[in-house]
Amino acid sequence: MGQMKTLIHTSNGSAKRPQPIAPFLLDLPEARAVHSIRKLGPLSRTDIAGITGYSRSKITTVINKLTHLGILEEMGDGLSSGGRKPRVLNFNAGFGYIVGVDMGATSLDIALADFNGHIIERLNKPIDVRDGPTEILSLVRQLVLDILQRRSIPIHKIYAFGIGVPGPVEFSTGLLIAPPIMPGWEAFPIRAFFQETFTSAIVIVDNDVNVMALGELRWGAGIGEENFIFVKVGTGIGSGIVCRGQIYRGVSGCAGDIGHICADPNGPVCHCGNIGCLEAMAGGPAIAARALQASQSSKSPILQRIMEHQNGLLTSVDVGRAAREGDRTANEIIHESGRMIGEVLASLVNFYNPSLILIGGGVSNVGHQFLASIRRGILHRSLPLSTRHLRIDISPMGANAGVMGAIALAMEHVFVPEQGYAIS
User: Fold this and answer.
1) Helices in 234-300 by DSSP H: which ranges?
2) pLDDT of the chain along its 424 residues, tens only?
3) Which among 131, 13, 37, 25 has a CA at the least distance from the CA of 69?
4) Cys-Cys link to 59, which of 49, 131, 275, 362 (CB 3.0-4.6 A)?
């Protein structure tokens, strides 16, 4: 089993394992057993045999190896189907630790989790990604080291980092490619930066919306959903696509970048250089800009009052607050943004026919009318058959989707099957 099988023999005949370095190479039966538990949660040997198609005796041999190495452990009895209750297996929480990093344009969410994905400690910090990779990633590194020191966890027990970033990521290399809102980040070696310090860890980098979609798939409303779309509406707008129970990234890793679909050919110039992009028309900054214009022209007394109280500043959250107070202009801004997003999503619904669309990101909190407007936009422009089984809702995980998805992303890459095999 790769590094996990290697033993160093001492002069007195005893043996000890070398310090493991992720990712850990497994043979195919081992990889399938691990994948089954990672995807479905605690399982019995009989469950694993049924899922993988291997015989009970083969799975017993596999599980014995994995428990001997400390990867899996028995955690009690499962439900009986008539005979003796089966012993249920799960990952050994203390085998190692995972770091999840959810990086937004203006915020940073970091969590340290055990090997079962249970968060041990979590930190939130305001940032500005325009400060560049060296400053931001150095902050992440120091915050993680501080957590390890507080928890008395040795650095070599960190086996994986999962990192979500707000820009296009070439997934195979973990490099950001021409990120519109992240100057100085293009092709920065994020993986190498962390592996210099955390030498036992594998580092996986992905677009933040893919990471949020994975969080919902593994921990939230996406459990049991094979085909769905997660839409993040914040400073930018993007989507994560789940196809057949897995994140679909496309050839280069940029699938789902709906923020730069044209919503209005007569609209403003987007920061990407194109005209009328959905992000420039309906994202958080666009909502705030329209609200500021309305308050300055005295169209909205409530927004004007909020603006004056906040020294001339407004955000999408303020627009939601004004709408809840009955401000007509604020409601119009929310309705128009939701409509545009819904109409773009209608094209995806007609093309992809998902069973679920989840709306997340900071702007999703502006109020129920935002979701209602998105729904109307989708239903108005979609074919009846494509929406027959479609559910459209706000992400129930909210701000947790990103960091939990980052943890799930890391977990999915700690163990890999031997070359030439794929786990289905």
Assistant:
1) 278-282, 284-296
2) 444 443 323 334 444 556 778 999 999 999 999 999 998 889 999 999 999 999 999 999 999 999 999 999 998 765 655 556 788 999 999 999 999 999 998 999 999 999 999 999 999 999 999 999 999 999 999 999 999 999 999 999 999 999 999 999 999 999 999 998 899 999 999 999 999 999 999 999 999 999 999 999 999 999 999 999 999 999 889 999 999 999 999 998 889 999 999 999 999 999 888 999 999 999 999 999 999 998 888 888 899 899 888 888 899 989 999 999 999 999 999 999 999 999 999 999 999 999 999 999 989 988 889 999 999 999 999 999 999 999 999 999 998 999 999 999 999 999 988 765 555 5
3) 25
4) 49
CA 245 from centroid of its chain's CA atoms: 14
**How many residues would you count in the chain?**
424
Q: Is 357 helix (H, G, I), strand (E, B) or coil?
A: strand
Task: Give the Cα separation of 143 and 136 in Å (integer).
Answer: 11
Instruction: Determine the 3-state secondary structure of 381 from DSSP.
Output: helix
Rg (the chain; Cα; Å): 24
Tell me if residue 205 falls in helix, strand or coil: strand
DSSP 261: S
228, 354 contact by CB (below 8 A): yes
Q: Which amino acid, residue 320? A: G
Q: How far apart are CA 93 and CA 392, in angstroms?
A: 35
Assess whether the previous peptide bond of 23 is cis (omega < 30° from 0).
yes
- Residue 241, φ and ψ in degrees, nearest 5: -105, 125
3-state SS record for 299-352: CCHHHHHHHHHCCCCCCHHHHHHHHHCCCHHHHHHHHHHHHHHHHHHHHHHHHH
Cα separation, 210 vs 76, whole angstroms = 34
253: number of Cβ within 10 Å: 22
**Residues whose CB is less than 8 angstroms from the CB of residue 121 and which lie 6 or more positions away in sequence, other chains included:** 111, 112, 147, 150, 151
CB atoms within 10 A of CB 226: 14
Q: Please, are residues 180 and 283 in contact by the beta-carbon 8 Å criterion? A: no
Beta carbons of 383 and 258 less than 8 angstroms apart: no
